[in-house]
Each structure stands twice: as structure tokens, then as C-alpha cells.
Design a protein that fits this description.
The protein is mostly helical. It has one domain. The chain is built from 24 helices and no strands. The longest helix is centred in the middle third of the chain and has 34 residues.
Length: about 450
Amino acid sequence: MLDYLIGTSELSQAIMMFGGMCVFIILGVPIPIAVGLGTIIGYILLDFPLLALSQAMYTGVEPFPLVTVPLFVLAGSLMEQGGMAKRIVGVAESLIGNVNGSLGLIAVLGCAFFAALSGSGPATTAAIGAVMIPSMIQQKYDPAFGGAIAAAGGALGSLIPPSNLMIIYGIVAEQSIPRLFLAGFLPGLIATAALMLVTYLIARKRGYVGVDHEFSFANVLTALNHGKFAIIAPVIILGGIYAGIFTPTEAASVAVVYALIIGGLVYRELKLINIVDCLKITAMISGAVLIIVGPAKAYGELMSLMSVPDMLGEALMGVTESPFLILMIMAIILIISGMFLESIAQIILLTPLMLPIVVGLDVDPIVFGILMVISCEIGFLTPPVGVNLFVAARITNLGVDRISIAVIPFLFAYIIVLVIISAFPDIVTILPNFFYGEYSY
């Protein structure tokens, strides 16, 4: 079979196309341009007119749901600047009480709450890390450990809905975004529990003390009252989607307006200068998304035309026919590629190659989407591209190398979650199937 594959012209062309892209990346060419140049190589090899390339790139940025990404980025940034992050931390603190490593547990739980607002891993790390890391350092936590907690907890921003990565996957894979959002709930809860368990075990071993007050329902009620507008935001955003009041794109618009009203008029912490900063952050993040979407979409389509998914499927089936083992192999590929590729580029490039294989194994595309998101979360925490590590390093004023070492136990927690949902995919599909019914794929 190997001799046959090597002799196949489509495979040779695909290797040249992929190799060209890798060479450009190694030479330091920005990834969107490297992907575009690799695609041009493919078009030349197939003797396709380059006009078709521009049309393919246009179809990549054309889908209207892409508007959801900058809107959720803006909403999350406004909520951070408008004081919602502090109040969410207050609610998390009231729920934890005085236990070993309580500040670390509060940070993880705060990240889980804020993840339901931001849709972004780096944004969640920045918002909760800015509040919690100084507090942990003040309580004699190892700064690297505090940064690792914020980075690992921040990755929940891509798993707990709403999630920008789920939106991108839904567009590329042509899957229902509301179903993906529902599918992320239970894995998000499992991941939160796993991160909290790791935090507690390490904190107990190192003797990190708790906060200076015990758990009480009175404190919880007080914190909920102070943070009620922050806590109710996910209910409005996600509740509106599942009640059929508005689409995910409209929900993102509602989130922006809500953040402006609460941060500016209720909490009065959102000033004009803050709004300008939020718009700058949104422009930078959204620009990075859009500039990669077009070339990556064209690249993925060309790989499909070269029958690369079929070749990969045959190669994997030659190794094993177990859906679980094939999902694990794909997860390893995604984790390794996530060390070098930005997550959105990773989803756009690899989904067209991998999705046909898993569908051929009767694996629900929604399950594969969640597996892909978790693998990307691990990429947030692995150098050299691990964005959350750089955010945490900036807050702690430490080198990324120290944060990278401290985050290793949390990586294992995410890998365990990855194995669990691959072995028991019903964890992912139970909520979407309950609310929307099962569907064929």
C-alpha cells in the first residue's frame, strides 16, 4: 500500500504543497502568507487558474456567522474592563471558602464563570489572571504556579460556551453552532473539576493556606447580589439562543450592548478610554482571525480535491479500525501541530482533512469538534506558540519557560478529559440530542 501511495500523483502534489508551506513557515514567513503561498504551489501543480484561488479565499471570509467572533471578543473585553471579572471572582471566592489552595481554586472557578462570557482562552486568562495572580503571589504562592493556574483555567474560555473556536469549527465543518455550544457544557464542567483537583492536590502538598473566611450562605448571597449582572449575562446570551429568541450572531451583539450598559451605566467603570482600548484589542484579534481564514479555507479545499482525506483514512485504517484509537491518534496530531500553529488556523487547515475520516467511522462531527477544541486548549498551554503562557508570563513578569514547566500537571488533566470524551462520546452529545434531537450525518 505504501508503494502505491508514494506513486500516486495526488499524494506527491499534496506533499509538495504541504512541504512548501512548511518551508515558508521555517523561513519566518507569517503563517497566513505561508499558507497562501503553499496553496499557490498547489494551484500551479494542478494547473488551476489563480483566479479560482481568490474566489476560494473569498468564500472563506464570506460566511455571516464569522461576524460573531469579533463581537464576542469585544463583549469579553468590555466585560473585563467594565468590572465584571472582579465581581465574578467575588462570587467564586464566596463559593470556595477556606480550604487549602483556595485562591487557586477561586482562579479556576472564576475562569470557568468568565469563560461563559468571553469565548476566548487568552481573554479569560488576562481577565481573571490580572485579578487573581497578584493575590496568589501576596499569599506566598509560587508565581509560576499562579501563572500556570490562570493559563490553564483560561483555556476553558474555548470549551465553555460561547466559544470562538466552536464558531470557527461550526463554519468550516458546516455544523450547528448552538449544538456545539451545548456539547461543550459537560466537557467544560469535567475539565473545570479536573483543573480544580490538580490545583488542590498541588496546593495541599506545598502547604498553601486558604483565604481568611469560611464558607457561608450569607457570603454567597452577598457576592451574588454584588455580581448579579455579571452572573446573569450567560443566562441572557445562551438562554436567548436556546429559547430561539436570537441567533448566535445576534446573541454576540446583545452581549456587546449588555456589556456597555452594565459596565458604563451600572458599574460606572467603563470609560471612553477603556472602550477605545477594547476596540483596539478586538481589531487586532479579529484581524488575525480574518487574515488566516481565507488562505486556510482555500488550502483545505485544495487538499480535499487532492483526495488527501481519503489517503489519510486508508493509512489510519491500516493501523487500527478502532474509532477510539483513531481519535487518539488525531488528538496527538492536533496537540503536536498546536505547538506551532495558532488554534484558528489549526481548525481551518485540519478539519477538512480529518472530518471525513471520523464521519466514515460513524463518529459524530460534534464529538470531533469538541475533541478538536480541547486539543487546541492544550496548544494554548504548550510553547512556542502557547498564547495563554505569554499572557500569564506578562502578568507574573516571569519567563515563559517557568510557566511552561509549572503548567505540565494541568496538561495531563486536559489529556485525561480528552481520553474520557473519546471513550464516552455520549458525554458530548447528550445535551444537544436532548434539546434538538438526534440527527444523521
